[in-house]
Each structure stands twice: as C-alpha cells, then as structure tokens.
Automatic annotation (TrEMBL):
SUPFAM superfamilies per record: POZ domain (SSF54695), Voltage-gated potassium channels (SSF81324)
GO terms assigned for molecular function: delayed rectifier potassium channel activity
Keywords associated with the record: Ion channel, Ion transport, Membrane, Potassium, Potassium channel, Potassium transport, Transmembrane, Transmembrane helix, Transport, Voltage-gated channel
Species, as recorded: Hydatigena taeniaeformis (Feline tapeworm)
Segments of this protein annotated with the region Disordered: 1-29
UniProt topology in membrane: Multi-pass membrane protein
Potassium channel tetramerisation-type BTB domain location: 33-122
Keyword flag Heme: no
GO biological process: action potential; protein homooligomerization
Bias-annotated ranges (Basic and acidic residues): 1-10
PANTHER family per the UniProt record, alphabetical: POTASSIUM VOLTAGE-GATED CHANNEL PROTEIN SHAKER, VOLTAGE-GATED POTASSIUM CHANNEL
Protein name: BTB domain-containing protein
Length: 434
C-alpha cells in the first residue's frame, strides 16, 4: 500500500517517462501505466501495452491524447465491463474473449475504439460462431440496397418496421379467412333431391364471394412482396435457395392454380381426378401460416433446433418404434383369450401402443384383463421415460441457437447503425429495438 503523496510522486515520474517515450526512446520495462476507465482504475506495465504497437493503447502517440496531466493518468470514458477483456488482450498475448455480461454490439464497439484491428474482430466473431459484418451481403446500387434493407431488415428504419407489421397483418388476415370460410355458416352446399329425399354432397360446395376477394387481395400483396425481394436481393441464384423464399412462393402457387382451373372451367365433380387435386390445393394453402417464420425469430430458431437435433429425434423415433412393437405384441396376447375382439391383431394394437407410449390415451382401445392393464402401465411408464431422455439435449440446442440468433441480430443492428452513421442520417431515423 502507498500513501497519497507516494502515489502522486509515482504518477509524476510516470508522466515524465511517458514524455520521454513520446520522443522515440524505448519504453522502460519497469514503467507502469495507470488507466482510468469511467472511474475504474487499471494499472499495467508499459511494455505489456507495447506488444501491439498498432493499437490505441500500444502506440504512445495515440495514447498520449487521452493523458490527464492534472491527475497523472490516462482517462477513457468507455464501457468498464469490456475493458477487462481489452486489457487482457495485451496481457494474454492476443487472446480475447467477450465477457458473458457484455452485449456483443457493445463489445465490438470497444474493440473498434481501441483499434485492435479487423483480424481481432474476425477472430472474435468466429469464436462466437458468427459471421463478420463484412459478410452481410448487400446488392449493388444505393436504391436496391435501401430496398433490400427495407424488406429484409425490419430494424433498419421506422418505415421498414411498419412494412413488417403490415405484412404480418396480411398473413394473419389470410390465415383467418382460410379458416373461417370452412364454417357451415359461410358454405353453400349443392343439394340433389331424388324422390323427395334431399341429398347433400360435400364434394361440391361453393364459398362466398367475399372470401374470394379477401384471398385475391392477400395473394396480390404476397406476389408483390416476392417480386420486390427478388428484384432487390444481392444474389438472384441464392434467392431460390433460401427456404423462406421457397416457402413464400409455395404459399401463392395454390391460389394461381385454382385461378387457372376456374379460367379453363375445369369440372370439379366427384368422377373427375381434378376434385382431389382441387382439395389438395386448398389444403396446401395452410402452408401460408409458415410465412410468419420470416418475421419470427422463434420459429426460425425452432427449425434450426429440429435440424440440429435430428440425431436425437431419430433415436427417439427408433425407441418409440421398439416400444410400440413390444407392447402391442404383449397386450395382444394378454387380451387374446379373454377379449379377442378388443385387439384383433398386432397391427391393430399398434394404435393403442402409440397413443399410450405418447401418453395421449384416447380411450377407444383399452385392455380389460389384469395382465393387459399391467402391460398398459409398463407401456405408459416406458413412454414417459423414452420421451424425456432426449428433451434436455433438444432444449440445450434451442437455447444455443436462441442465444446465437440474438447475437446475430445485435451484430446486424450494429452494422446497420454504423452504415447509417457513415451516411450521416439523423439519429431519429436509426433503428430502434423492435
């Protein structure tokens, strides 16, 4: 411990040595430098900082502009939680890692301020499992760039956010119309009267005209949105490789196929094969609900989790198949003598085994003998244990991708913010958190 006078004398001596170093003399190995970061004091050797002379702290000339001669230390009005890792970059010979409590965008801003270099940024992002900001591909031309950011990144501007909200509203209206049009209140059935007995045919019914116009309006909006994304995308080839774009195209194709069938007056009656195709197209329209995944990071994270957990899901499916075959066979022979009609065959028993293993239990098939009930208990317990085993792995994958998605979002926001700052736009035009 040192007294205040001793510390002041040490700082004055250090300041004198700093002035000597700024003239070009080599640093003294025993010289210590005091760094004040927003009130938090750090102290290290000058030779430690000089390991990286191209950085802000490693260059005496760059560092000198932050020296406070009144207090005898260097003052930085920067983020205190990030500076520990920044300083350890010098102490650890180039090793850097973001603190868990510091947001990615904040830490990147500190790395940029202290001029650690683009190589450090790329290494940091690679360790985080993220791409560099330079990997954010933008199309050529300012108009296409602005249009691409407008439709693809809702946080890029206030109007882009409104566009995203309006697109979500159209999707919800389309899904609601798709569901409501099947209510009996809105359906007109075709009735055939034979010998004074009315016959209702469910295969030939017609929907109200209002729903058609709602459908037409929504499909026109989706089509315009697809063309805007295709026109402004940086790479036309990668546009058709994107799962979200393929999903958008698949959601509008059934409507235009129905329009073609209507224009050519293709008969949609029971004897024709077009009837099943017609029903398939109407069923395929439900895929439009997946369009929400473009605007929902949670759905995207869920899809990535399912892909990453494919091995665990395959093992789960294999275990379930083994349990279904095993317990279906056991319950069949357990009920064979007393109630042969309850479980007619082993394949018929598969249904009971599936709903029991998955703990659904519809109750349409159930064992009645004591041995059969015992088999049912074992089946239910085995199902609970089997399903519970891979759940921690799947949850862990979900948490991993969720954190990475949030960090990716912060990185994109950081890049967009720097872009808008470079262009000199007003602060109120810079994106806000959605």
């Amino acid at each position: 411990l040192r007294t205040r006078d001793q510390r002041s004398g040490k700082l004055e001596t250090q300041y004198q040595r700093q002035e000597e170093d700024s003239t070009g003399n080599p640093p003294v190995s025993s010289e210590r430098i005091v760094l004040n970061v927003s009130g938090l004091i750090f102290e290290t050797y000058a030779i430690t900082l000089h390991k990286f002379p191209n950085t802000l702290l490693g260059d005496p000339v760059k560092r000198a502009q932050f020296f406070d001669p009144r207090h005898g230390h260097y003052f930085f009005d920067r983020h205190r939680g990030s500076f520990e890792s920044i300083l350890f970059y010098y102490q650890g010979n180039g090793f850097i890692q973001r603190p868990l409590t510091v947001p990615l965008a904040v830490f990147l801003e500190e790395v940029k301020f202290f001029q650690l270099g683009e190589k450090v940024v790329r290494s940091l992002l690679r360790d985080e499992g993220l791409k560099s900001m330079d990997d954010i591909l933008l199309p050529d031309g300012s108009s296409r760039q602005n249009l691409w950011l407008f439709v693809e990144y809702p946080l890029s501007s206030r109007y882009a956010r409104w566009f995203s909200i309006f697109s979500i509203t159209i999707i919800l209206i389309s899904v609601a119309s798709f569901c409501l049009e099947t209510l009996p209140l809105f359906i007109t059935y075709h009735v055939e009267i034979t010998k004074t007995v009315p016959k209702f045919t469910a295969d030939n019914f017609f929907f109200r005209e209002e729903f058609f116009y709602v459908e037409l309006t929504c499909m026109l909006w989706f089509t315009i949105e697809i063309f805007i994304r295709f026109y402004s995308c940086p790479n036309r080839y990668s546009f058709f490789r994107s799962a979200l774009n393929i999903l958008d195209i698949a959601s509008v194709l059934p409507f235009y196929a129905l329009i073609i069938m209507m224009c050519f007056e293709i008969p949609i009656t029971r004897p024709t094969i077009y009837l099943r195709f017609f029903h398939f197209l109407r069923l395929f329209r439900v895929i439009r609900v997946l369009k929400l995944s473009r605007h929902s990071k949670g759905l995207q994270v869920l899809a990535k989790t399912m892909v990453a957990s494919s091995r665990e899901l395959t093992l789960l499916l294999f275990f379930l198949i083994v349990c279904v075959v095993l317990f279906a066979t056991a319950v069949y022979y357990a009920e064979l003598d007393s109630h042969p009609n309850s479980f007619a065959s082993i394949p018929d028993s598969f249904w009971w085994a599936v709903v029991t293993v998955t703990t659904v239990g519809y109750g349409d098939m159930h064992p009645q003998t004591t041995l059969g009930k015992f088999v049912g208990c074992l089946c239910a317990v085995a199902g609970v244990l089997t399903i519970a085993l891979p759940v921690p792995v799947i949850v862990s994958n979900f948490n991993y991708f969720y954190v990475k998605e949030r960090e990716n979002e912060e990185l994109i926001n950081y890049a967009l913010l720097n872009r808008r700052r470079t262009q000199g736009l007003a602060d109120d035009q810079i994106f806000t958190e959605f």
